[in-house]
Write a structure and sequence with these properties.
Elements (H helix, E strand, L loop, with lengths): L1 H4 L3 H36 L10 H5 L2 H9 L2 H12 L2 E5 L2 E4 L3 H7 L28 H12 L4 H6 L1 H16 L9 E2 H18 L5 H4 L4 H20 L2 H9 L3 H23 L7 H8 L7 H32 L1 H14 L8 H5 L3 H12 L9 E2 L5 E3 L2 E3 L4 E3 L2 H5 L45 H18 E5 L13 E2 L1 E2 L5 E6 L2
Parallel strand pairs: 2-7
Antiparallel strand pairs: 1-2, 3-11, 4-7, 5-6, 8-11, 9-10
Helix pairs in contact: 9-10, 9-21, 10-16, 12-13, 12-14, 14-16, 16-17, 16-19, 16-21
The structure holds protoporphyrin IX containing FE (HEM).
């Protein structure tokens, strides 16, 4: 009897291979059928079916995901909005808007439209920083505590920190051997300055980037985390993949995250143990915290966010303001004149004094328009019926957002959108620019989750730029004369490339 029913090992293997073949074929067929059916549903039956946009992007996340991966989201959304207008369906379930009223409709809606938890960067203990907490109540509670560190009074008491690092920048630049040969990358130096300022404001101790002329490894690690988080968002568009990919992340990614987490904890420990009364962020956070406000873990996570959000953005804008001004000699000359006529010495460049200058303000504003630091959409989730954006009813379950760079460079919002014209922001602006829809320009966003560091960013950028242009004559390096420095890949943040200049010390 046994012999009749037993299989030889070869027979068993053959049966196994045949069965595996069938399973694979059926799985592929089922997946293909699902993909085709969902594409048909998305294009012809989905609640967004009547919104304009390319059919392929309506059918599948692939075109969007491809741009996320190759960093070319900005040119893609620019092309789409140029073709389809104020609203474009960029994903089966996401709409992109470039009309100015979208800011109020999306980002100041009450109750808040939640921030999707896509690709969020958690610390290894699972705690999220204030910037990525989805729950409005928890976010609001933490933000209220942190906001004490950004009051006008706090800012004035922090001025000496801004003075210290902007002066150090000038000293260090003066001593660079390559100052005049066109190989000095001003972008890195701006970054060193803003990292040192934020290190000092958060931890009571800088990263010594200006001293060493190098990025601290912690900074590199945190930025790698941001890019990884952005790339991980790709898999959220293919739900089962997301969990699998997170589980399969290579060991070094976890080790890197753990290392940078430990570094933050140690720095925060040290700052708290110092019991110092210096007027940095930590003093205000600790003084205004209360049981149930922010846990120690919340403080760690939010400190990392503050360094990241406060350094990269200001350095990018300083670089683009320098780049665009140098590319436009008329602008550069007017800017330099304003600064050099206003100040007799570098020491006169104070927060109060620099805040009175109008042209430097317009120069930085126009740099933020040409090259915003958050170039792509940071969407919100429509979590209820009856939401309207730009006068259009948006169904529940959809994500909506504004891609800043596309909105700021759109000819439907600005006259000569690709030209760098600070004059459009002046009170006595050229009437040609009266047509600009300035309400669309919100580089710091609006609403309860807008930039908490906006005022600090403005004074820091003006002070650093004014000191550089007061102390040096600048020229673009030959290397920068062709091409467009601002045409950069984007992985949530701009992937900045070097910006080479020649600098001649004055006096
Ligand atoms: C040119 C300079 C800056 C620009 C253009 C900028 C822009 C922005 C934008 C667009 C957001 C909203 C991001 C989102 O919702 O995902 C944001 C949030 C934030 N920014 Fe800034 N930022 C700048 C400088 C700073 C500085 C200097 C700091 C502080 C040191 C800072 C701290 C923050 C924080 C903590 C948040 C999160 C706020 C919250 O979730 O409540 N930023 N910023």
């Amino acid at each position: 009897m046994d012999g009749e029913y037993s299989l030889s090992p070869v027979g068993f293997l053959r049966t196994l291979i045949t069965a595996a073949g069938w399973i694979l074929t059926v799985s592929i067929a089922v997946t293909a059928a699902r993909v085709v059916l969902s594409a048909i549903y998305n294009v012809y039956f989905h609640p967004l079916r009547n919104f304009p946009g390319p059919k392929f992007a309506a059918a599948t996340p692939l075109p969007f995901v491809w741009r996320l991966l190759n960093g070319r989201m900005v040119p893609w959304t620019m092309k789409l909005h140029a073709k389809y207008g104020v609203v474009v369906r960029v994903l089966p379930d996401e709409l992109s808007f470039i009309g100015s009223s979208a800011w109020q409709d999306i980002y100041t809606a009450r109750p808040q439209l939640p921030k999707p938890t896509f690709g969020v960067l958690e610390t290894p203990n699972g705690i999220r920083s204030m910037g990525i907490i989805p729950d409005a109540e928890t976010h609001g509670r933490q933000r209220k505590i942190v906001s004490h560190a950004f009051s006008d009074r706090a800012l004035l008491s922090q001025e000496y920190i801004l003075q210290k690092y902007s002066d150090l920048l000038i000293d260090r630049l003066r001593n660079q051997p390559n100052l005049q040969d066109g190989t000095l990358d001003i972008c890195s130096w701006y970054n060193f300055t803003t990292f040192d300022v934020l290190g000092d404001l958060c931890f009571g101790e800088s990263f010594h980037c200006l001293d060493t002329a190098e990025k601290h490894p912690w900074i590199a690690s945190v930025f790698m985390g941001v890019k990884a988080a952005q790339l991980l968002t790709v898999f959220q568009h293919f739900p089962p993949m997301s969990t699998i990919v997170k589980m399969c992340l290579p060991q070094f990614v976890h080790e890197e995250a753990q290392k940078s987490f430990t570094f933050t904890r140690q720095r925060v420990d040290k700052r708290i143990a110092s019991k110092s009364d210096r007027p940095d962020f930590m003093k205000h956070i600790l003084e205004n915290n209360y049981p149930g406000g922010m846990s120690r873990e919340d403080v760690d996570a939010t400190t990392t966010l503050l360094v990241l959000a406060g350094s990269e953005t200001s350095a990018t804008t300083l670089t683009s303001a320098t780049y665009f001004s140098l590319k436009n000699p008329r602008v550069f000359q007017r800017l330099v004149r304003e600064i050099r006529e206003a100040f007799k010495s570098q020491a006169d460049i104070t927060i109060a004094a620099v805040s009175n200058l109008s042209y430097i303000h317009a120069v930085i504003q126009e740099a933020l328009r040409m090259h915003p630091t958050g170039p792509i959409s940071v969407p919100r989730q429509v979590d209820r019926p009856d939401v309207e954006v730009c006068g259009m009813a948006v169904p529940q379950g959809i994500r909506v957002g504004i891609p800043q760079k596309t909105a700021f460079r759109s000819p439907s919002n600005f006259v000569d959108p690709d030209s760098y014209i600070p004059e459009r922001w002046l009170e006595d602006a050229d009437p040609r620019y009266a047509q600009d829809d300035k309400a669309v320009f919100e580089p710091f966003m609006v609403g309860p989750r807008n930039c908490i560091g906006k005022t600090l960013a403005w004074v820091e950028m003006k002070m650093v730029l004014a000191k550089v242009l007061w102390s040096f004559d600048l020229e673009l390096s030959e290397k920068m004369k062709g091409g467009d420095w601002s045409d950069q890949k984007v992985y949530l943040l701009n992937e900045k490339t070097p910006m080479y200049v020649k600098m001649m010390p004055r006096g």
